[in-house]
Amino acid sequence: MGSSPGDLGDRLEQLYTGVLYDSLREFDDTWRVLPPDLKPIDPSRKLAGRIFTVAGNRDDDLGDHESMLAWTEFLTQAPSDHVVVCQPNDAVIAHMGELSAETLKLRGIRGYVVDGGCRDVDFIEHLGFPTWCRYTTPSDIRGRWRAEQLGEPIVIGDVTIHSGDYIAADRDGVIVIPQDLAVEVVEAAEFAVSQEDLVREAIRRGASPKEAYLEHGKF
């Protein structure tokens, strides 16, 4: 049975990265977990949805206008009901801030994952815009960084990410699910959760861990 990108994103948000990882391994043994130093600004939040990619590069010879024009073009082009995933090719400045986060949220973006930095994190946390990053810094992109590629494949860690793939993020980490496997992985994860619930009930009734595992094939 088919599922729209929005519906699939909603179903992903009800799951957790551990069971998604286990389920993805049933279909694809390629490493799909992003580096563990990507952390949520607000650990109480989860994030899931279809991916829209952006990539850029550091350029200290940029003018302020040129950098901000490219940035606002990205903010304009990012499609609603997606998660923006950014490869900035930079490890010094911030690639998300308060006004941009509010703009993306108002435009229906589910959240933001960047292999780089953020600033204004108190504001972003208060705003409730799910954001994952590697570090924080007050230094911004103005006149120093340009968004150059929208919707093109990017690489974070050992993972190649395409627009249209799906992402799920929580306190455990961030996992990427290829678009062509997303429905199967979500269905498998939902079934796995139901089996885990049966194991949990068996343990609470007094079954040994081994008995529960043999009965349900899950632990």
Description:
This protein is elongated. It has 7 helices and 12 strands. Strands 1, 2, 3, 4, 6, 8, 11 and 12 form an 8-stranded mixed β-sheet that branches. Strands 5-7 form a two-stranded parallel ribbon. By secondary structure, it is of the alpha/beta class. It has one domain: Glucose Oxidase, domain 1. The longest helix is centred in the C-terminal third of the chain and has 23 residues, at 182-204.
Gist?
α2 crosses α6 and α6 crosses α7.
Any descriptors?
219 residues, alpha/beta, Glucose Oxidase, domain 1, 8-stranded mixed β-sheet, two-stranded parallel sheet, 7 helices, 12 strands, 24% strand, elongated
Encode the helix/strand succession as letters. HHEEHEHEEHEEEEEEEHH
Counted up, domains total: 1
Within CATH, the superfamily carries the name: Ribonuclease E inhibitor RraA/RraA-like
Low-confidence stretches: none
Mean pLDDT: 94
The first-level CATH class is given as: Alpha Beta
SSE topology:
Blueprint: H1 5-13, H2 17-25, E1 39-40, E2 47-58, H3 64-77, E3 82-87, H4 98-106, E4 111-114, E5 117-118, H5 121-127, E6 131-133, E7 135-136, E8 145-150, E9 154-156, E10 159-161, E11 166-170, E12 173-177, H6 182-204, H7 209-216
Parallel strand pairs: 2-3, 3-4, 4-6, 5-7
Antiparallel strand pairs: 1-6, 2-8, 2-11, 9-10, 11-12
Helix pairs in contact: 2-6, 6-7
